[in-house]
């Protein structure tokens, strides 16, 4: 199915299901996806193996481009609800991520102090203290956990390193609850393997991990855009609601985007 890439450092603002008027920040190349996952459902397509040297925009380029856009939005009296780090892959793999976050906070405070700063991350870089510290500075630190079962996790997310769900969860616990967990519920077939992270076993084990991580918010949602893999099924709103009610019954703040 057709997918797309963000062809600018700063994109939008766009109307986001979760984040309102969102001004996007893409720290990654504009011509290909650069990520530590290869998710079956990613709107940016597959993570392709390449021997070419990755060329990233510098901290200064990103700062100047963001400031120019914020000035434009201020002149238009069009305040963003969020400045959101997303884009063509995993934002935290940019070598200057921590410094870029500091720059963004200063620019936000100068131009739109009521706007929030959000980072959408797959959490694969949070073994690095500097990444954890940077994520703790933003308003919404939104980290991915799509399955509690390793086999399902490996099929859906296809991490490029040999990481396990247990390792991921132990790292997420470092935030002491100062994070949001985002989970995309999905079912389908991939290379002869059927998977479904909405089964009772999947959901129960996932909830057990949420109780360990103790996130301030849990965000659950289905596929909303085109995906690189075609044999996937969008989860219906009733199923999502039922999952959300189970989580909410345990005292978690749950947002469902169906």
Describe the structure.
With 258 residues, the protein is of the alpha/beta class. The protein has a single domain (10-256), classed as Aldolase class I (TIM Barrel, Alpha-Beta Barrel), CATH 3.20.20.70. 31% of the residues lie in helices and 21% in strands. It has 7 helices and 11 strands. The protein has helices at residues 59-75, 97-111, 129-135, 150-157, 165-172, 200-213, 237-248, and strands at 10-16, 20-25, 82-85, 116-121, 140-144, 180-184, 186-190, 193-196, 217-221, 232-234, 254-256. An 8-stranded mixed β-sheet has the order 1-2-3-4-5-6-9-11. Strands 8-7-10 form a 3-stranded antiparallel β-sheet, with helices on one face. Helix 1 (59-75) runs parallel beside helix 2. It is globular, with a radius of gyration of 18 Å. The two termini are 21 Å apart. The mean pLDDT is 94.
